Amino acid sequence: MITIGVLDLQGAVIEHVDKINNISGATALRVKNVKDLEDIDGLIIPGGESTTIGKLLRDFNMLSPLKSKIESGMPVWGTCAGMIILAKSILGSDYNHLGVMGIEVRRNAYGSQLDSFITDEIVEGVSEEKIPLVFIRAPYVEKAHEGVKVLCSLDEKIIACRENNMLATSFHPELTKDLSMHKYFYNMCKDRLK
Questions:
Q1: Which residues does UniProt mark as catalytic (predicted)?
Q2: Can 16 be counted among the known catalytic residues?
Q3: Domains plus CATH for the chain?
């Protein structure tokens, strides 16, 4: 059984937990502290408020241990705010959070909550069919550095990418009925254990 953690500090936690528990061979663990990091094969950093999640990672002394685990190869997937948490560079900001993934992101790039939208796209390596993508105050990747593979773009903006053991998406797959992205991440976790 592959145990996939969902960072449970703030944001869309339950929805990711439900998706993981619907994948055969996977089980979800809500990660609330440093100790929980020892019990997982991969981690999802959910959507929410990136500034709040970053502050709570620091307050709970989880930032450095989590960064070490990612740098040691543990698979991690940041959705929406999670993408910002992973990024080495946040445009318009002089700081980052984990700063592990070679991407420059623009926060709230798609506007306010009122500008939320759904579209259907093919995500390379994830699904051969178009899958629903939900955008809520979403960021996008302004620039991907060498070694980052772009999996999907929308209007020439990068909305899904991967760098080694790190996956980032602007959108919220946990808010759809589609399991493709969660299965893709499950396979990333499984492949690492081979």
A1: 80 (nucleophile), 172 (charge relay system), 174 (charge relay system)
A2: no
A3: 2-192 (3.40.50.880)
